[in-house]
């Protein structure tokens, strides 16, 4: 069966990084495909017996973006396995990336009035409005504080997951960098004892055994893990009935290094029976980074 991955989202959020990763893993990739050609391209891909294709569509693409959700629905109803990954980032990060790359926003000419170019913020705001309907329906990855290697690893894990059940993701993050925009459920563990104040543990992470042993001593830590696990276990069946394909549970502490990482690892063990299950640490390098 043909597997289709559609990469979309806000310009400057990392679509090129994601598309190159898919190309390196054997996908036939097309960038900036016009929206009206999507169905025809997939039909031809089936006829030529391609097994994996990846397509990037965003505001650069000719055609009506508002028609894209309906086209995706038709494709899925016809039996095509389409996985959509919507990449996003906060405005500050987008502006910084445009400044570093010295590229113009793709909506600059389209929004020009009386020979006056719009501001970058105006372009970002307009693009968010144009992409809002699609963002609400698909899986979102907030790339604001992700290194390219992390984004490649996350996309790789996501496309390897089976589509049928809910993809359950446990994700750690640092509150000092903001709550990730791709979170469905957010739990704050900053009230737990902090290994940061132990000089021998400060340089380690929640994945290291000395930190785990230190946190294991506190009943409050285990109670927190039990409570979060109980909440997710109780409500996960209803999320699965809600026709959603993804559920991201974000666990936050101050620096995203010790407590949140530890809790995510503990939750992943509790839910190891669920498939597909993904584990993400926003402020830690991937265990097996993609070159």
What is the alpha-carbon Rg in Å?
Answer: 21 Å
Order of helices and strands: EHEHEHEHHEHEEHHEHE
Strand order of the biggest β-sheet: 2-3-1-4-5
Label the CATH architecture of the largest domain: 3-Layer(aba) Sandwich
What number of domains? 2
Biggest sheet features: 5 strands, parallel
Q: Beta-strand level of the residues, as a percent range?
A: 15-25%
**CATH domain fold name of the largest domain:** Rossmann fold
What does this structure look like?
- There is one protein chain.
- The protein has 291 residues and is of the alpha/beta class.
- It is 40% helix and 18% strand.
- It contains nine helices and nine strands.
- The strands form two sheets. A five-stranded parallel β-sheet has the order 2-3-1-4-5, with helices on both faces. A four-stranded parallel β-sheet has the order 7-8-6-9, sandwiched between helices.
- The longest helix has 23 residues, at 219-241.
- The radius of gyration is 21 Å and the shape is globular.
